[in-house]
Amino acid sequence: MGTTKIDRARVADAGLRLLNEVGLDGLTLRAIARELDVKAPALYWHFKDKQALLDEMATVMYRRMLEGGLPGPTPRGWQEQMVAYQGALRAALLRYRDGARVYSGAQFTGTDHADGLEAHLRTMVDAGFELWQAVRAGTTVNAYTMGFVTEEQGVQPMPDERREGYDVDERAERLERYPLAAAAGAEIFTHYDERFEDGLWIVVAGIEARYGVT
Q1: How does pLDDT run across 178-188, given as a tens digit for each residue?
Q2: How far apart are CA 177 and CA 158, in angstroms?
Q3: Would you state the pLDDT for residue 7?
Q4: Residue 4: band (very low, low, confident or very high) from pLDDT cuts 50, 70, 90
Q5: How many other β-carbons are positioned within 10 Å of the β-carbon of residue 63?
Q6: Which of 109, 120, 111 lies closest to 12 in space, CA to CA?
Q7: Residue 2: its pLDDT value, please?
Q8: Which of 17, 42, 105, 186 qualifies as a FRET site for 148, CA 20 to 30 Å off?
Q9: DSSP 8-class letter at 40
Q10: CA-closest candidate to residue 211, choices 153, 97, 130, 116
Q11: Considering just the CA atoms, what is the radius of gyration of the chain in Å?
Q12: Running DSSP on this structure, what letter comes out for residue 43?
């Protein structure tokens, strides 16, 4: 092994590169050490365990999303703002194999997210939400996005890949005795962009109905 100097940023960047090759289950500190040409114990100066590294990787994912131009408050209302932000989040997660699994439940290691969170909560409070309602609405729609992308990446780990066993025509043949279930496969396992946006608007409509804020 070499004597290359490393820091948290280099380790997280190497982790994200390796993630796209081996996925979350194959990502280990030892594998990242090999990628960086250092000995594995060197990584423990920066991260006490794999979860600490995943927290940093998720933070880097968010920072890169900011660099891409995160949708901000919009005069068209909280609904458009919420849909735009979740669309940007999905796009960011899809850049990485198992991106949703890495991001879900991670604890940000910085405060990069605070400006955006403050602005989005302000938009919702100004629209008439109580703060607790704005938080519940936001976390609910965020959970929708995380769940949707987790399922999407279970079928298509990367945009140009599709896991074996998810051929819609073969599925329809296996379920030929169940015509509706067979036909549903073409919708369940394709059209991810359209389905995601439709689902978002369904959640938004539910938030409007629940809290009476339009």
Answers
A1: 999 999 999 99
A2: 32
A3: 87
A4: low
A5: 16
A6: 109
A7: 46
A8: 17
A9: G
A10: 130
A11: 20
A12: G
Q: Which structure tokens are listed for 186?
A: 């073409």
- On whether the CB atoms of residues 102 and 149 are closer than 8 A, the answer is no
Rounded CA-CA distance 174/165 in Å is 12
d(CA 102, CA 100): 5
In the numeric block, the tokens 């549903």 are attached to 184
C-alpha 136: how far from its chain's center?
Answer: 18
In contact, 197 and 87? CB cutoff 8 Å: yes
What are the φ and ψ backbone dihedral angles of 128, each rounded to 5 degrees? 125, 0
Please give the biggest Cα pair distance in the chain. 63
CA distance 70 to 49: 30
Residues 66, 114: Cα–Cα separation, whole Å: 12
Length of the chain: 214
* Cα–Cα distance, 194 to 197 (Å, whole number): 5
Q: Where are the alpha helices (DSSP H) in 27-167?
A: 29-36, 50-67, 78-93, 99-103, 114-127, 131-155
d(CA 141, CA 124): 14
